[in-house]
Protein backbone atom coordinates (compact mmCIF):
# COMPACT_ATOMS: atom_id res chain seq x y z
CA UNK A 1 0.00 0.00 0.00
CA UNK A 2 1.33 3.42 -0.92
CA UNK A 3 2.60 5.42 2.04
CA UNK A 4 0.69 8.58 1.14
CA UNK A 5 -2.62 9.61 2.57
CA UNK A 6 -5.37 10.94 0.31
CA UNK A 7 -4.64 14.53 -0.56
CA UNK A 8 -8.32 15.20 -1.02
CA UNK A 9 -8.63 14.84 2.72
CA UNK A 10 -5.62 16.98 3.56
CA UNK A 11 -5.70 19.97 1.27
CA UNK A 12 -8.23 21.86 -0.76
CA UNK A 13 -7.37 21.27 -4.42
CA UNK A 14 -8.98 23.11 -7.29
CA UNK A 15 -9.04 21.83 -10.85
CA UNK A 16 -9.72 24.51 -13.44
CA UNK A 17 -12.12 23.36 -16.16
CA UNK A 18 -10.40 22.15 -19.27
CA UNK A 19 -7.09 21.46 -17.57
CA UNK A 20 -6.54 18.24 -19.53
CA UNK A 21 -5.68 20.14 -22.68
CA UNK A 22 -5.79 17.89 -25.71
CA UNK A 23 -3.60 18.13 -28.76
CA UNK A 24 -5.03 20.84 -30.99
CA UNK A 25 -3.93 19.21 -34.25
CA UNK A 26 -4.69 15.92 -35.94
CA UNK A 27 -1.26 14.30 -35.86
CA UNK A 28 -0.72 11.03 -34.03
CA UNK A 29 0.99 10.95 -30.63
CA UNK A 30 4.77 10.65 -30.74
CA UNK A 31 6.24 7.15 -30.55
CA UNK A 32 7.73 6.18 -27.19
CA UNK A 33 11.44 7.07 -27.10
CA UNK A 34 12.49 3.91 -25.27
CA UNK A 35 14.99 5.95 -23.28
CA UNK A 36 14.74 8.18 -20.23
CA UNK A 37 16.60 11.41 -19.53
CA UNK A 38 16.95 14.06 -16.84
CA UNK A 39 18.58 17.48 -17.04
CA UNK A 40 18.80 19.44 -13.79
CA UNK A 41 20.91 22.05 -12.05
CA UNK A 42 22.72 19.55 -9.80
CA UNK A 43 24.22 16.10 -10.46
CA UNK A 44 22.77 14.72 -7.21
CA UNK A 45 19.26 15.71 -8.29
CA UNK A 46 19.75 14.27 -11.77
CA UNK A 47 20.95 11.00 -10.21
CA UNK A 48 17.92 10.91 -7.90
CA UNK A 49 15.59 11.15 -10.90
CA UNK A 50 17.44 8.45 -12.85
CA UNK A 51 17.51 6.14 -9.82
CA UNK A 52 13.75 6.46 -9.41
CA UNK A 53 13.13 5.55 -13.05
CA UNK A 54 15.59 2.66 -12.80
CA UNK A 55 13.50 1.40 -9.86
CA UNK A 56 10.37 1.36 -12.03
CA UNK A 57 9.09 4.88 -11.52
CA UNK A 58 7.85 7.11 -14.30
CA UNK A 59 8.77 10.68 -15.26
CA UNK A 60 6.37 12.06 -12.65
CA UNK A 61 7.96 10.04 -9.86
CA UNK A 62 11.35 11.22 -11.08
CA UNK A 63 10.19 14.84 -11.05
CA UNK A 64 9.24 14.59 -7.38
CA UNK A 65 12.63 13.10 -6.50
CA UNK A 66 14.50 15.74 -8.53
CA UNK A 67 12.50 18.63 -7.04
CA UNK A 68 12.94 17.37 -3.49
CA UNK A 69 16.68 16.80 -3.93
CA UNK A 70 17.18 20.25 -5.47
CA UNK A 71 15.41 21.69 -2.43
CA UNK A 72 18.21 20.26 -0.30
CA UNK A 73 21.35 20.56 -2.44
CA UNK A 74 20.51 23.79 -4.31
CA UNK A 75 19.24 25.93 -1.39
CA UNK A 76 20.13 29.18 -3.12
CA UNK A 77 17.48 28.69 -5.78
CA UNK A 78 14.60 26.43 -4.72
CA UNK A 79 13.18 24.51 -1.82
CA UNK A 80 10.25 23.51 0.32
CA UNK A 81 9.64 27.11 1.39
CA UNK A 82 8.94 28.11 -2.22
CA UNK A 83 6.69 27.16 -5.10
CA UNK A 84 6.61 26.49 -8.79
CA UNK A 85 4.95 25.08 -11.87
CA UNK A 86 4.93 21.53 -13.26
CA UNK A 87 4.01 21.07 -16.94
CA UNK A 88 3.17 17.44 -17.72
CA UNK A 89 2.58 15.32 -20.79
CA UNK A 90 0.86 11.98 -20.17
CA UNK A 91 1.71 9.60 -22.99
CA UNK A 92 -0.99 7.00 -22.32
CA UNK A 93 -3.80 9.52 -22.76
CA UNK A 94 -2.00 11.99 -25.04
CA UNK A 95 -2.82 14.98 -22.85
CA UNK A 96 -1.16 17.92 -21.16
CA UNK A 97 -1.65 18.89 -17.54
CA UNK A 98 -0.37 21.95 -15.70
CA UNK A 99 0.09 22.00 -11.91
CA UNK A 100 0.13 25.45 -10.33
CA UNK A 101 1.97 25.21 -7.01
CA UNK A 102 2.71 28.94 -6.88
CA UNK A 103 2.96 30.69 -3.51
CA UNK A 104 -0.03 32.64 -2.15
CA UNK A 105 -0.21 35.90 -0.24
CA UNK A 106 -1.05 35.33 3.46
CA UNK A 107 -4.63 35.99 4.45
CA UNK A 108 -3.60 39.04 6.54
CA UNK A 109 -1.93 40.71 3.53
CA UNK A 110 -3.07 44.19 2.51
CA UNK A 111 -2.70 46.18 -0.69
CA UNK A 112 -0.27 48.74 0.73
CA UNK A 113 1.52 46.60 3.32
CA UNK A 114 4.97 47.44 1.91
CA UNK A 115 4.45 51.21 1.75
CA UNK A 116 5.25 53.81 4.41
CA UNK A 117 2.81 56.46 5.63
CA UNK A 118 3.73 58.64 2.66
CA UNK A 119 2.94 55.88 0.19
CA UNK A 120 6.55 55.05 -0.64
CA UNK A 121 8.00 51.50 -0.67
CA UNK A 122 9.89 50.52 2.48
CA UNK A 123 13.25 49.25 1.33
CA UNK A 124 13.87 45.55 1.93
CA UNK A 125 10.43 44.51 3.21
CA UNK A 126 9.65 42.42 0.12
CA UNK A 127 13.12 40.88 -0.02
CA UNK A 128 14.38 39.83 3.42
CA UNK A 129 12.67 38.35 6.46
CA UNK A 130 9.34 36.55 6.91
CA UNK A 131 7.13 39.44 5.82
CA UNK A 132 8.53 38.89 2.31
CA UNK A 133 7.32 35.29 2.18
CA UNK A 134 4.21 33.92 0.51
CA UNK A 135 2.64 30.63 1.62
CA UNK A 136 4.75 27.85 0.06
CA UNK A 137 3.29 25.63 -2.65
CA UNK A 138 6.12 23.28 -3.56
CA UNK A 139 5.45 20.63 -0.88
CA UNK A 140 1.79 20.44 -1.93
CA UNK A 141 2.79 20.34 -5.59
CA UNK A 142 5.17 17.43 -5.07
CA UNK A 143 2.61 15.49 -3.02
CA UNK A 144 -0.10 16.13 -5.62
CA UNK A 145 2.17 15.04 -8.45
CA UNK A 146 3.08 11.81 -6.66
CA UNK A 147 -0.49 10.99 -5.64
CA UNK A 148 -2.13 11.66 -8.99
CA UNK A 149 0.51 10.76 -11.56
CA UNK A 150 3.27 8.72 -9.90
CA UNK A 151 3.59 4.99 -9.30
CA UNK A 152 5.99 4.73 -6.34
CA UNK A 153 5.46 5.52 -2.64
CA UNK A 154 5.95 9.18 -1.79
CA UNK A 155 8.40 8.21 0.96
CA UNK A 156 10.63 6.51 -1.62
CA UNK A 157 10.67 9.67 -3.73
CA UNK A 158 11.76 11.80 -0.77
CA UNK A 159 14.42 9.33 0.37
CA UNK A 160 17.33 10.84 -1.64
CA UNK A 161 16.54 14.33 -0.34
CA UNK A 162 16.36 13.10 3.24
CA UNK A 163 19.69 11.35 2.86
CA UNK A 164 21.40 14.44 1.47
CA UNK A 165 19.91 16.63 4.21
CA UNK A 166 21.25 14.30 6.88
CA UNK A 167 24.62 13.44 5.36
CA UNK A 168 25.19 16.84 3.79
CA UNK A 169 26.07 18.25 0.39
CA UNK A 170 29.20 20.11 -0.65
CA UNK A 171 29.07 23.88 -1.04
CA UNK A 172 29.33 24.81 -4.73
CA UNK A 173 30.67 27.91 -6.39
CA UNK A 174 27.21 29.16 -7.36
CA UNK A 175 25.70 28.49 -3.96
CA UNK A 176 28.58 30.33 -2.30
CA UNK A 177 28.20 33.26 -4.67
CA UNK A 178 24.60 33.72 -3.57
CA UNK A 179 25.44 33.21 0.08
CA UNK A 180 28.11 35.88 -0.09
CA UNK A 181 25.58 38.25 -1.65
CA UNK A 182 22.97 37.56 1.09
CA UNK A 183 25.34 37.16 4.04
CA UNK A 184 24.03 40.14 6.04
CA UNK A 185 20.41 38.99 5.80
CA UNK A 186 21.32 35.35 6.52
CA UNK A 187 23.17 36.45 9.67
CA UNK A 188 19.94 38.01 10.98
CA UNK A 189 18.19 34.61 10.97
CA UNK A 190 19.81 32.50 13.73
CA UNK A 191 18.43 29.21 12.42
CA UNK A 192 19.73 29.95 8.94
CA UNK A 193 23.08 31.26 10.11
CA UNK A 194 23.61 28.08 12.12
CA UNK A 195 23.50 26.05 8.90
CA UNK A 196 25.02 28.36 6.31
CA UNK A 197 27.34 30.62 8.33
CA UNK A 198 29.17 28.22 10.68
CA UNK A 199 30.97 30.21 13.38
CA UNK A 200 29.62 33.35 11.73
CA UNK A 201 31.78 32.90 8.62
CA UNK A 202 31.10 31.93 5.04
CA UNK A 203 31.87 28.30 4.26
CA UNK A 204 34.41 27.40 1.60
CA UNK A 205 33.72 25.66 -1.69
CA UNK A 206 33.66 21.94 -0.91
CA UNK A 207 32.61 22.32 2.73
CA UNK A 208 29.86 19.89 3.76
CA UNK A 209 26.54 21.52 4.66
CA UNK A 210 24.21 19.40 6.79
CA UNK A 211 20.54 20.25 7.43
CA UNK A 212 19.20 18.00 10.22
CA UNK A 213 16.08 20.11 10.89
CA UNK A 214 15.16 19.94 7.20
CA UNK A 215 15.62 16.17 7.26
CA UNK A 216 13.14 15.98 10.14
CA UNK A 217 10.65 18.11 8.20
CA UNK A 218 11.00 15.84 5.18
CA UNK A 219 10.50 12.74 7.31
CA UNK A 220 7.17 14.15 8.47
CA UNK A 221 6.19 14.64 4.84
CA UNK A 222 7.32 11.12 3.96
CA UNK A 223 5.07 9.77 6.72
CA UNK A 224 2.03 12.01 6.29
CA UNK A 225 2.18 13.45 2.78
CA UNK A 226 1.27 17.11 2.42
CA UNK A 227 -0.22 17.12 5.92
CA UNK A 228 3.29 16.57 7.22
CA UNK A 229 4.09 20.11 6.10
CA UNK A 230 0.83 22.06 6.15
CA UNK A 231 -0.52 20.68 9.41
CA UNK A 232 0.83 19.31 12.65
CA UNK A 233 4.19 20.05 14.21
CA UNK A 234 5.89 21.46 11.12
CA UNK A 235 3.03 23.91 10.51
CA UNK A 236 3.17 25.11 14.12
CA UNK A 237 6.94 25.59 13.94
CA UNK A 238 6.64 27.53 10.67
CA UNK A 239 3.92 29.85 11.94
CA UNK A 240 5.50 30.39 15.37
CA UNK A 241 8.86 31.22 13.78
CA UNK A 242 7.35 33.58 11.23
CA UNK A 243 5.21 35.46 13.74
CA UNK A 244 8.04 35.75 16.27
CA UNK A 245 10.12 37.52 13.62
CA UNK A 246 7.37 39.94 12.56
CA UNK A 247 5.62 37.95 9.84
CA UNK A 248 1.88 37.43 9.35
CA UNK A 249 1.43 33.74 8.54
CA UNK A 250 -1.35 31.81 10.29
CA UNK A 251 -2.13 28.12 10.61
CA UNK A 252 -5.15 28.70 8.37
CA UNK A 253 -2.85 29.99 5.63
CA UNK A 254 -1.06 26.67 5.58
CA UNK A 255 -4.03 24.36 6.01
CA UNK A 256 -5.99 26.20 3.31
CA UNK A 257 -3.25 26.17 0.67
CA UNK A 258 -4.45 24.56 -2.55
CA UNK A 259 -2.80 23.24 -5.69
CA UNK A 260 -4.63 24.26 -8.85
CA UNK A 261 -4.63 22.48 -12.18
CA UNK A 262 -4.91 24.93 -15.05
CA UNK A 263 -5.17 24.65 -18.81
CA UNK A 264 -1.73 25.08 -20.42
CA UNK A 265 -1.17 27.93 -22.84
CA UNK A 266 -0.77 26.48 -26.35
CA UNK A 267 0.21 28.22 -29.57
CA UNK A 268 1.66 27.30 -32.95
CA UNK A 269 4.56 28.96 -34.70
CA UNK A 270 4.96 27.92 -38.34
CA UNK A 271 4.25 24.26 -37.59
CA UNK A 272 5.93 24.14 -34.17
CA UNK A 273 3.54 23.58 -31.28
CA UNK A 274 4.50 25.50 -28.14
CA UNK A 275 2.93 24.30 -24.87
CA UNK A 276 3.75 26.52 -21.92
CA UNK A 277 2.58 28.00 -18.64
CA UNK A 278 -0.72 29.88 -18.20
CA UNK A 279 -1.43 32.65 -15.71
CA UNK A 280 -0.34 33.29 -12.98
CA UNK A 281 2.74 32.75 -15.12
CA UNK A 282 3.06 35.38 -17.81
CA UNK A 283 5.38 33.07 -19.76
CA UNK A 284 2.92 31.30 -22.02
CA UNK A 285 1.05 34.46 -22.98
CA UNK A 286 4.22 36.45 -23.68
CA UNK A 287 5.63 33.60 -25.77
CA UNK A 288 2.37 33.38 -27.71
CA UNK A 289 2.38 37.11 -28.32
CA UNK A 290 5.96 37.22 -29.61
CA UNK A 291 5.43 34.21 -31.87
CA UNK A 292 2.26 35.83 -33.25
CA UNK A 293 4.24 39.04 -33.77
CA UNK A 294 7.06 37.28 -35.65
CA UNK A 295 4.64 35.22 -37.72
CA UNK A 296 3.59 38.38 -39.54
CA UNK A 297 7.00 38.80 -41.16
CA UNK A 298 8.55 36.87 -44.02
CA UNK A 299 11.42 34.55 -43.03
CA UNK A 300 13.95 36.74 -44.83
CA UNK A 301 12.87 39.72 -42.74
CA UNK A 302 13.76 37.82 -39.57
CA UNK A 303 17.36 37.18 -40.60
CA UNK A 304 20.45 39.07 -39.48
CA UNK A 305 20.40 42.28 -37.51
CA UNK A 306 16.92 43.21 -38.76
CA UNK A 307 15.59 39.95 -37.32
CA UNK A 308 17.12 40.77 -33.93
CA UNK A 309 15.63 44.27 -34.11
CA UNK A 310 12.17 42.83 -34.79
CA UNK A 311 12.53 40.24 -32.03
CA UNK A 312 13.39 43.04 -29.59
CA UNK A 313 10.34 45.00 -30.71
CA UNK A 314 8.15 41.95 -30.14
CA UNK A 315 9.60 41.50 -26.65
CA UNK A 316 9.00 45.18 -25.88
CA UNK A 317 5.31 45.01 -26.75
CA UNK A 318 4.61 41.70 -25.06
CA UNK A 319 6.26 42.81 -21.81
CA UNK A 320 4.28 46.04 -21.96
CA UNK A 321 1.09 43.95 -22.00
CA UNK A 322 2.49 41.88 -19.16
CA UNK A 323 2.91 45.02 -17.05
CA UNK A 324 -0.51 46.44 -17.87
CA UNK A 325 -2.86 43.48 -17.87
CA UNK A 326 -1.53 40.31 -16.29
CA UNK A 327 -2.17 38.91 -12.84
CA UNK A 328 -3.85 36.04 -11.00
CA UNK A 329 -7.03 35.27 -12.97
CA UNK A 330 -8.72 34.04 -9.81
CA UNK A 331 -8.67 37.68 -8.65
CA UNK A 332 -8.62 39.87 -11.76
CA UNK A 333 -10.11 39.73 -15.24
CA UNK A 334 -7.28 39.37 -17.75
CA UNK A 335 -8.18 39.67 -21.46
CA UNK A 336 -6.28 36.49 -22.36
CA UNK A 337 -8.19 35.80 -25.58
CA UNK A 338 -7.52 39.30 -26.88
CA UNK A 339 -3.87 39.36 -25.82
CA UNK A 340 -3.16 36.02 -27.48
CA UNK A 341 -5.11 36.71 -30.67
CA UNK A 342 -3.37 37.16 -33.99
CA UNK A 343 -5.30 40.39 -34.49
CA UNK A 344 -3.81 41.94 -31.36
CA UNK A 345 -0.23 41.44 -32.48
CA UNK A 346 -1.14 42.44 -36.04
CA UNK A 347 -2.16 45.79 -34.56
CA UNK A 348 1.04 45.97 -32.50
CA UNK A 349 3.11 45.26 -35.59
CA UNK A 350 1.61 48.27 -37.31
CA UNK A 351 3.65 50.60 -35.08
CA UNK A 352 6.97 48.91 -35.88
CA UNK A 353 9.50 50.35 -38.31
CA UNK A 354 11.97 47.97 -39.92
CA UNK A 355 14.85 50.37 -39.36
CA UNK A 356 14.00 52.22 -36.14
CA UNK A 357 13.51 51.27 -32.50
CA UNK A 358 10.24 52.25 -30.85
CA UNK A 359 10.99 54.02 -27.55
CA UNK A 360 8.94 52.39 -24.79
CA UNK A 361 7.76 55.88 -23.83
CA UNK A 362 5.88 56.04 -27.13
CA UNK A 363 3.73 53.05 -26.15
CA UNK A 364 0.74 53.61 -23.90
CA UNK A 365 1.66 51.98 -20.63
CA UNK A 366 3.10 52.47 -17.16
CA UNK A 367 5.50 55.31 -16.29
CA UNK A 368 8.95 54.21 -15.15
CA UNK A 369 9.63 55.32 -11.54
CA UNK A 370 12.96 54.46 -11.50
CA UNK A 371 19.83 42.35 -10.90
CA UNK A 372 18.22 39.75 -12.69
CA UNK A 373 19.82 36.41 -11.95
CA UNK A 374 19.56 32.67 -11.61
CA UNK A 375 17.77 32.31 -8.26
CA UNK A 376 15.23 29.78 -9.49
CA UNK A 377 15.74 26.30 -10.89
CA UNK A 378 14.40 24.29 -13.81
CA UNK A 379 14.62 20.62 -14.70
CA UNK A 380 13.42 18.56 -17.65
CA UNK A 381 12.47 14.86 -17.61
CA UNK A 382 11.33 12.29 -20.17
CA UNK A 383 10.80 8.58 -19.54
CA UNK A 384 10.94 5.59 -21.86
CA UNK A 385 7.17 5.64 -22.37
CA UNK A 386 7.23 9.27 -23.49
CA UNK A 387 5.84 10.90 -20.34
CA UNK A 388 7.39 14.34 -19.86
CA UNK A 389 7.81 16.96 -17.14
CA UNK A 390 9.07 20.52 -17.46
CA UNK A 391 9.30 21.99 -13.96
CA UNK A 392 10.38 25.45 -12.87
CA UNK A 393 10.49 25.97 -9.10
CA UNK A 394 11.76 28.85 -7.03
CA UNK A 395 12.23 30.74 -3.78
CA UNK A 396 12.75 33.91 -5.90
CA UNK A 397 16.05 35.74 -5.24
CA UNK A 398 19.25 34.19 -3.84
CA UNK A 399 18.25 32.18 -0.74
CA UNK A 400 14.75 33.63 -0.86
CA UNK A 401 13.89 35.70 2.20
CA UNK A 402 17.14 34.51 3.88
CA UNK A 403 15.06 33.30 6.81
CA UNK A 404 14.47 29.87 8.38
CA UNK A 405 11.78 29.43 11.06
CA UNK A 406 13.60 27.66 13.91
CA UNK A 407 13.28 23.91 14.00
CA UNK A 408 12.13 23.53 10.37
CA UNK A 409 15.20 23.86 8.17
CA UNK A 410 12.90 25.48 5.58
CA UNK A 411 14.26 28.54 3.78
CA UNK A 412 11.33 30.83 3.08
CA UNK A 413 10.69 32.44 -0.29
CA UNK A 414 10.47 36.17 -0.95
CA UNK A 415 7.83 35.89 -3.67
CA UNK A 416 5.81 38.81 -2.31
CA UNK A 417 8.32 40.91 -4.26
CA UNK A 418 6.72 39.54 -7.45
CA UNK A 419 3.56 41.52 -6.72
CA UNK A 420 3.25 45.10 -7.89
CA UNK A 421 3.51 46.82 -4.52
CA UNK A 422 2.84 50.17 -6.20
CA UNK A 423 2.07 50.90 -9.89
CA UNK A 424 5.24 51.77 -11.78
CA UNK A 425 7.64 50.79 -8.98
CA UNK A 426 10.09 48.12 -10.22
CA UNK A 427 10.76 44.95 -8.24
CA UNK A 428 14.11 43.18 -7.76
CA UNK A 429 14.10 42.21 -11.44
CA UNK A 430 13.22 45.76 -12.56
CA UNK A 431 9.77 44.65 -13.69
CA UNK A 432 6.92 47.10 -13.30
CA UNK A 433 3.27 46.23 -12.89
CA UNK A 434 -0.18 47.70 -12.35
CA UNK A 435 -3.29 46.91 -10.30
CA UNK A 436 -3.82 43.53 -11.98
CA UNK A 437 -0.82 42.26 -9.99
CA UNK A 438 -1.49 44.15 -6.74
CA UNK A 439 -1.20 42.41 -3.35
CA UNK A 440 -4.39 40.75 -2.07
CA UNK A 441 -5.05 38.02 0.53
CA UNK A 442 -4.72 34.55 -1.00
CA UNK A 443 -3.63 35.91 -4.38
CA UNK A 444 -0.75 34.41 -6.36
CA UNK A 445 1.90 36.81 -7.64
CA UNK A 446 2.57 37.08 -11.35
CA UNK A 447 5.49 34.93 -12.44
CA UNK A 448 7.87 34.67 -15.40
CA UNK A 449 8.55 30.95 -14.94
CA UNK A 450 8.00 29.26 -18.30
CA UNK A 451 8.30 25.46 -18.34
CA UNK A 452 7.70 24.60 -22.00
CA UNK A 453 7.28 21.75 -24.49
CA UNK A 454 8.18 22.23 -28.16
CA UNK A 455 6.74 19.78 -30.67
CA UNK A 456 7.02 19.44 -34.45
CA UNK A 457 7.61 16.84 -37.13
CA UNK A 458 11.26 17.00 -36.10
CA UNK A 459 10.68 15.85 -32.54
CA UNK A 460 10.18 17.12 -29.00
CA UNK A 461 12.07 19.48 -26.72
CA UNK A 462 11.48 19.98 -22.99
CA UNK A 463 12.89 23.35 -21.99
CA UNK A 464 13.03 25.92 -19.19
CA UNK A 465 15.40 28.02 -17.13
CA UNK A 466 15.77 30.28 -14.11
CA UNK A 467 16.59 33.95 -14.62
CA UNK A 468 13.87 36.19 -13.18
CA UNK A 469 12.31 38.49 -15.75
CA UNK A 470 14.67 37.10 -18.41
CA UNK A 471 13.24 33.59 -18.21
CA UNK A 472 10.68 34.16 -20.94
CA UNK A 473 13.12 35.62 -23.47
CA UNK A 474 15.62 32.82 -22.78
CA UNK A 475 12.93 30.22 -23.49
CA UNK A 476 11.84 32.25 -26.52
CA UNK A 477 15.33 32.33 -28.02
CA UNK A 478 15.92 28.65 -27.25
CA UNK A 479 12.60 27.81 -28.93
CA UNK A 480 13.59 29.73 -32.06
CA UNK A 481 16.95 27.96 -32.02
CA UNK A 482 15.24 24.56 -31.84
CA UNK A 483 12.85 25.58 -34.62
CA UNK A 484 15.91 26.38 -36.75
CA UNK A 485 17.56 23.00 -36.11
CA UNK A 486 19.64 23.54 -32.97
CA UNK A 487 20.63 20.66 -30.71
CA UNK A 488 19.95 20.55 -26.97
CA UNK A 489 23.57 21.60 -26.38
CA UNK A 490 23.16 24.56 -28.73
CA UNK A 491 20.00 25.69 -26.95
CA UNK A 492 21.58 25.84 -23.51
CA UNK A 493 24.83 27.43 -24.75
CA UNK A 494 23.60 30.30 -26.90
CA UNK A 495 24.45 33.88 -25.94
CA UNK A 496 21.35 35.74 -24.74
CA UNK A 497 19.71 39.12 -25.07
CA UNK A 498 16.58 40.56 -23.49
CA UNK A 499 14.15 43.49 -23.50
CA UNK A 500 11.29 43.86 -21.01
CA UNK A 501 9.62 47.19 -21.96
CA UNK A 502 10.96 48.99 -18.88
CA UNK A 503 13.73 49.85 -18.33
CA UNK A 504 13.98 50.69 -22.02
CA UNK A 505 17.20 48.90 -22.86
CA UNK A 506 18.46 45.70 -24.41
CA UNK A 507 20.57 43.73 -21.92
CA UNK A 508 22.88 41.17 -23.49
CA UNK A 509 25.61 38.71 -22.68
CA UNK A 510 29.08 39.27 -24.15
CA UNK A 511 29.08 37.70 -27.58
CA UNK A 512 25.32 37.88 -28.15
CA UNK A 513 25.88 40.56 -30.80
CA UNK A 514 28.79 41.20 -33.12
CA UNK A 515 30.41 44.63 -33.14
CA UNK A 516 28.63 45.40 -36.42
CA UNK A 517 25.27 44.34 -34.97
CA UNK A 518 25.78 46.52 -31.92
CA UNK A 519 26.55 49.49 -34.13
CA UNK A 520 23.52 48.81 -36.33
CA UNK A 521 21.11 48.35 -33.42
CA UNK A 522 22.34 51.52 -31.74
CA UNK A 523 21.95 53.38 -35.02
CA UNK A 524 18.32 52.26 -35.04
CA UNK A 525 17.87 53.84 -31.61
CA UNK A 526 18.19 50.82 -29.32
CA UNK A 527 19.97 51.32 -26.01
CA UNK A 528 22.22 48.34 -25.32
CA UNK A 529 23.81 47.29 -22.03
CA UNK A 530 26.23 44.40 -21.68
CA UNK A 531 25.54 42.44 -18.48
CA UNK A 532 28.29 42.02 -15.90
CA UNK A 533 28.04 38.24 -15.82
CA UNK A 534 26.29 35.47 -17.81
CA UNK A 535 22.74 34.67 -16.74
CA UNK A 536 20.37 31.71 -16.77
CA UNK A 537 20.82 28.00 -16.08
CA UNK A 538 18.83 26.24 -18.79
CA UNK A 539 18.16 22.49 -18.75
CA UNK A 540 16.88 20.79 -21.90
CA UNK A 541 15.88 17.29 -23.00
CA UNK A 542 15.19 16.55 -26.68
CA UNK A 543 13.86 13.54 -28.60
CA UNK A 544 14.51 13.26 -32.35
CA UNK A 545 11.83 11.25 -34.15
CA UNK A 546 13.95 10.40 -37.20
CA UNK A 547 16.96 9.04 -35.35
CA UNK A 548 15.32 8.01 -32.08
CA UNK A 549 18.05 9.90 -30.25
CA UNK A 550 17.31 11.33 -26.79
CA UNK A 551 19.66 14.09 -25.63
CA UNK A 552 20.00 15.84 -22.30
CA UNK A 553 21.94 19.09 -21.89
CA UNK A 554 22.62 21.50 -19.05
CA UNK A 555 23.74 25.09 -19.20
CA UNK A 556 27.53 25.59 -19.27
CA UNK A 557 26.96 28.65 -17.05
CA UNK A 558 25.85 26.34 -14.23
CA UNK A 559 27.00 23.21 -12.47
CA UNK A 560 24.24 20.81 -13.42
CA UNK A 561 24.19 17.51 -15.23
CA UNK A 562 22.13 16.01 -18.02
CA UNK A 563 22.04 12.24 -18.44
CA UNK A 564 20.23 9.70 -20.58
CA UNK A 565 19.15 6.36 -19.04
Q: Which structural class best describes the helix and strand composition?
A: alpha+beta
In the predicted model, the low-confidence regions spanning at least 5 consecutive residues are: 1-24, 367-373
Radius of gyration: 22 Å
Strand content: 15-25%
Number of distinct beta strands: 20
Q: Residue share in helices? A: 25-40%
Output mean pLDDT: 93
> What would the principal axes of the Cα set say about the shape?
globular
Number of helices: 18
In terms of topology, how is this protein built?
Elements: E1 14-15, E2 21-22, E3 37-40, H1 43-54, H2 59-73, E4 83-90, E5 95-101, H3 138-149, H4 154-167, E6 169-170, H5 173-181, H6 183-187, H7 190-196, E7 208-209, H8 212-224, H9 227-230, H10 232-244, H11 251-255, E8 260-262, E9 265-269, E10 272-276, H12 283-294, H13 304-325, H14 336-339, H15 342-349, E11 376-382, E12 388-394, E13 452-455, E14 459-463, H16 471-483, H17 488-493, E15 497-498, E16 506-508, H18 515-524, E17 528-530, E18 539-544, E19 550-554, E20 561-564
Parallel strand pairs: 1-8, 16-17
Antiparallel strand pairs: 2-5, 3-11, 3-20, 4-5, 4-12, 5-8, 6-7, 9-10, 10-13, 11-12, 13-14, 14-18, 15-16, 18-19
Helix pairs in contact: 1-2, 2-3, 2-4, 4-8, 12-13, 12-15, 12-16
